[in-house]
Amino acid sequence: MTVLGTTAPTILHLSGDIDVCTTPDIRRRILGALDQTVEVLILDLSEVTFCGAGGLGLLLHAQGRARSRGVTLALTRLTPQMTRLLEITELSDRFPILAEK
């Protein structure tokens, strides 16, 4: 599967905790970025310190919205904790994961 298209991707940097308190703001940020994205939205998770169930739900919701708009939602720069969380929840195959450059 080709992730990067012909136009420059939109990159959104997320940081801190993604939990019940922060998901409304992060949802607005992601949906706002989707409005500006033509082909690929990349979420940089290098500074995410915690992700709860609500955060995983948010990522899945964002992926669905992206797909409905013909946009690929990809993740990059995952922390070891995020990598492990996606693996144990069996969600690691649901998102394109881009290697660091």
From TrEMBL:
Single GO term (MF): anti-sigma factor antagonist activity
Signal peptide: none
InterPro entries listed in its UniProt record: Anti-sigma_ant, STAS_dom, STAS_dom_sf
Gene3D superfamilies: STAS domain
Pfam families given in the database record: STAS
Domain of life: Bacteria
CDD domains per record: STAS_anti-anti-sigma_factors
Domain STAS: 11-101
Family per record: Belongs to the anti-sigma-factor antagonist family.
Protein name: Anti-sigma factor antagonist
Native species: Herbidospora solisilvae
